[in-house]
Amino acid sequence: MSGGPELGATGAGPPTAAGPPTAAAPSGATEGCGSRETAPCYRTGLGIDAHRFAPDRALVLGGVRLRDTHGLAGHSDADVLVHALMDALLGAAGLEDIGHYFPDSDPKYAGADSVELLRQVVRLLHERGWRVGNADAVVVCEEPRIAPHRSSMKRVLALALAIPEERLGIRGTTTEGMGFPGRGEGILAQAVVLIER
Ligand SMILES: [Zn+2]
Predict the structure, then answer these.
(1) Average per-residue pLDDT in the chain?
(2) What is this structure's pTM?
């Protein structure tokens, strides 16, 4: 399939980064949750992703190109942090998984800028009346160190999520040599998000 019916309908131009839902009752709002007569409705979502290192690929993490080699393998730019965030957002809204909207069998997404895909996911949520409350993500790897790049990543991703930077957490940690991140085979990322309407 080519990107899913929802995204296909919005593919005419880049979604705006801002754009909180309108005051009108959001489409798809279930009764008693998120309607104008009731208290705000909140949902949480969990996202997990992992990619294997590939010496001949650039490393793109959190929307920031960290180096030209020793990146991650994947159909898109393999931005594992952004994919975890997308996964969490889609899960919170009860939508399909990333592969449904951005199939890796579709050449359109070869080398795709994952931040652009994140914008499309946020647009998908906005269309359903959801806005992002906050997001928190952890990148698990022995290297590179995340801290020196955190502020750059936050700037890029907060804009894509349409939230202030203080509502976005990004941290790095290691597994002290244990497991696949510890052996330097790849990078793992996890994210949680809160969405509201
Ligand atoms: Zn991924």
Answers:
(1) 88
(2) 0.83
